[in-house]
Amino acid sequence: MARRKAPPEPQPDLFVEAGLTPAPAAAPARKPASATAALLDPAATDDASLSALAFVEAPVALLVLANRRILQANPAAAALFGWPRHLMQGQSVRMLYPSAFEFRTVGERWLRLMRDRPVHEDERVMQARGGRMFWARARGRTLTPDRPFELMVWTFEKLEGPETPTETALTPREREIALHVVEGRTAKQIARLLDISHRTVEVHRAAVMRKLGARNVAELVSRIVETR
Question: How far is CA 143 from CA 62, 92, 199, in A?
């Protein structure tokens, strides 16, 4: 006799997790053409439906994490990291970091910071599907300040265009070269890839080292992967 498959585990209710109480469900209407169409239904105007619509349609990458596991990822996050949403959900957020070292050190740093304040942001190297690394601005809010990692909301923004310059901000070219340094490439190898002189690479690398307070290349790599 064939074994009966266990029923799938229910998906967590994000609004309950966040301490929100959705309004009573409306009476069922006609079957919508899509999930977004359901959220746009004139009858679905309660806070929970509008919050769900905002999460799905937000133009910025959003993740909801519970103890550093991905409860939900919106379509913008799937596009940024190159993973289908259903493959991200339930996974450790380690999948979005270049190494276990970065995952651990960033986690330790954020845990320490978010015990004092519920919202924090920084810039860091993240990893998309296939190993492609990129600089990102990460913003996080904990919904459980006494236990910061128990429930968090994150946004991620890829950094690639010109920004308002500050004394310590890396330029787009410096971020590009920093990523190559993390991957172990020499100044001459980076120069060939970017079609610039290795002297130019050395100038940019020296600027990155100065801005991040690194005394040598090994320390520079450590600074980059531990976030600024």
Answer: 15, 19, 48
